[in-house]
Amino acid sequence: MCVQPHTEIYWLPPEIHKMRLPTSWRRLWLIVSSLPRLGAQILRFWRQQEDCLYLNVYTKRISGEGEGEPMARLGCDPETEDPGSAGCADKLSPVIVFIHGGAFYTGTANSHIYGPDYLLREDVVLVTVQYRLGAIGFLAPGSEEVPGNAGLKDQAAALRWVRDNIRVFGGDPGRVTLVGHSAGGASVHYHTLSAVSRGLFHRAVHLSGCALNAWAFATPAAARARARRLADLLGCGRRCAADPDELVAFLRTKTPREIIHASYSVFQHQETAAGYIAPFVPTVDAVYMPSRNSSALHEAPFLRASPEEAMRGADYHPVPTLAGLNSEEGMVVLLPDIITDEMTPSPRNLELLDKDFERVVPVELDLQRGSEKSRLVASMIRQHYFAGKQIGSETVLNYVQIYSDIMFSIGIGRYIRALQAHSSQPTFVYYFSFDGKLSVIKKLVRSELPGVSHGDELGYLFPVEMMPAEDVRPWDIDMLVRDRWTRILANFAKYGSPSGPAFKTDPVLNTTWSPSTATAPTYLNIGAELTQHDGYPKIDAYYFWESVYRIAGRTLG
């Protein structure tokens, strides 16, 4: 987690020293150090550092030592020629900027999780980005001083840096593909909705995440309520509830560690049972425009409307998009609890759910708990997923399937349909179903359940040091799936199409991939083979939840 320096200017943007972050790179040095590590395990996010706003740049263009030599290897003379000149432009590689996931409250861009080895084989430049997280990055108490979305603005600052400097690393600032996983995928969606990010990237990839996932957005009212709950947990009572500026002043007296640990208790069980992950997430920050006399030093508003409204608004700038999900995203709920290290779901939680199934009714349906409609919706969900079976250790897969849908597939399904309705750019849809030896999350939870968990596809995109060792041989199908997956993303970054121009002769892909449209929806199933299918992934689940929303008096899409 990124934690802003705790000083008298705690809530102001951090000072950027010229010695640490030059505004431009006229000459090139060989830099071999990576950004500070946040601990050896992805789940141990209490081991934090305040100095965290870094990015990594990985490129094959840097080779050899000494100032200027790498650009000379590109056919450019750094003494006489600007890296952005015509003589250098045709030597540049497409750029992939990757935004990590972690529910906007944990995660890192370190190479021990997101190593560059696989993607660099495809002749791209890879940039991985860190940003402020949790309450430090997404607190929005209703104050002009802290309007929210600081973490998204960190990402936008990284994109501006890439635009201004990536040529020196052999990257093409005119071919920047923004890729995000989970909350990172939601972040990518937000950047398409913000005027702040317009023109900074040219293609978008969403790996199991978008802003229409219920956990990825908080209304301004919800964001204020969560901020007040945080302050109350830390000991600030009525004065913080009444005045957001008092709340900010109070939080200034607390250490980052106190704020972070209090954040764990902001959500109540009803919210977590309904698929909400972290309390501090993106919100509409335009409602907190600073007044003429305000001394607030934050940037322009990042988001002017909810994601649904913003996709119909003037700030939306659609780009070619690749989006999809895994077969059993909800398996991620089996990860050990990040605080207690106990396995989840515990027998106790399963027993509670069996006795009180209203816990899984989505909060966004706004149904009064215990009401006839809430009980009806709970009964529908239980019958659909459990078909009369008792909830317990024998039906964990059914439990997983609920969270696959309410946390991921429904929101992503809504997003794909919204793209088809509001975007003039091509949309490519995938469904990752290959369950193999490089599946990251399944290895961590030691799950024997069938299916591909949320996060499993990352093992086929990045070498992950922390993953338990597995005997993967060069001729295993896993290696072919890895090569296909990286080729798909690299082709999309290079050409705007995952098939690429030579798909008929490409021994790795050897398939064409058509865009998905409202009149001809289609998706590519990435399994042991690549197969194209008509329709949408998880269509039966989508139809079921459409009926649930209809009964609740809401529309799903």
Automatic annotation (TrEMBL):
<keyword id="KW-0378">Hydrolase</keyword>
<feature type="active site" description="Charge relay system">
    <location>
        <position position="454"/>
    </location>
</feature>
<dbReference type="Pfam" id="PF00135">
    <property type="entry name" value="COesterase"/>
</dbReference>
<protein>
    <recommendedName>
        <fullName>Carboxylic ester hydrolase</fullName>
        <ecNumber>3.1.1.-</ecNumber>
    </recommendedName>
</protein>
<dbReference type="InterPro" id="IPR029058">
    <property type="entry name" value="AB_hydrolase_fold"/>
</dbReference>
<dbReference type="InterPro" id="IPR002018">
    <property type="entry name" value="CarbesteraseB"/>
</dbReference>
<dbReference type="InterPro" id="IPR000997">
    <property type="entry name" value="Cholinesterase"/>
</dbReference>
<dbReference type="InterPro" id="IPR019826">
    <property type="entry name" value="Carboxylesterase_B_AS"/>
</dbReference>
<feature type="active site" description="Acyl-ester intermediate">
    <location>
        <position position="182"/>
    </location>
</feature>
<keyword id="KW-0719">Serine esterase</keyword>
<feature type="domain" description="Carboxylesterase type B">
    <location>
        <begin position="48"/>
        <end position="544"/>
    </location>
</feature>
<comment type="similarity">
    <text>Belongs to the 'GDXG' lipolytic enzyme family.</text>
</comment>
<feature type="active site" description="Charge relay system">
    <location>
        <position position="329"/>
    </location>
</feature>
<comment type="similarity">
    <text>Belongs to the type-B carboxylesterase/lipase family.</text>
</comment>
<keyword id="KW-0325">Glycoprotein</keyword>
<dbReference type="GO" id="GO:0003990">
    <property type="term" value="F:acetylcholinesterase activity"/>
</dbReference>
<dbReference type="InterPro" id="IPR002168">
    <property type="entry name" value="Lipase_GDXG_HIS_AS"/>
</dbReference>
